[in-house]
């Protein structure tokens, strides 16, 4: 898309450059955004897919400067595969989200897992990497995936939100690795912060992050209420719930909606509000 050029560095602020990968899709929007932090030495956040054109674009931005860390928010194939050729090119360690192997028999509605992702250092809540004039502090934000991390840049009060909070859509929460209760708790955690701006993995920078996060919490609570109202009418399988809840939805996004409805149902089931019987869901007695 002309308005979203791939491979062109965009200076978001003095410490942050964004490069868009050429992997646009109904699930990645215009593509995965790689963020390069620093001036004299660098961190590369979510280098994206193993795409030669994207790697060449990153090399042009790096321009021979030392890379202190290749930082990963989570292990989906649109975020982490380029860690390996980038490490070969720069010698930098891969740090961030824990590795995770999952045999998920359910329909994948978002980018699938990167089975070859192996970090040199796993970061947990409060861990950090730093360079000349910058620090990236890990914030555990599970929900979209069990190992999802966001990264705060305290020098400018920016937050790299990965896929937990995006600039174009609510994130997919796809069980069993995705967990709706964890996702909501992670949104609550971000509400307690005072970050100035979010730089997401997909979509534009979020200039009023607290307002957006509040709206996302409200949206998920609205969907939960919608499910409960429908199940009070009658027991329903997930495809019927999706057709009633997402009228006019692009057919390509129906699998994603079904996975998020399932995540809501699992959360409601854990809370004793609904139960499953013979492939249908109903209000718990």
Automatic annotation (TrEMBL):
Protein name: MBL fold metallo-hydrolase
GO MF terms, alphabetically ordered: hydrolase activity
Keyword entries, A-Z: Hydrolase
Keyword Hydrolase: yes
Top-rank taxon: Bacteria
Pfam families documented for this protein: Lactamase_B (PF00753), WHD_BLACT (PF17778)
InterPro entries, per database record: LACTB2_WH, Metallo-B-lactamas, RibonucZ/Hydroxyglut_hydro, Sec-metab_biosynth-thioest, WH-like_DNA-bd_sf
Domain Metallo-beta-lactamase span(s) in chain numbering: 30-202
CDD domains named in the record: metallo-hydrolase-like_MBL-fold
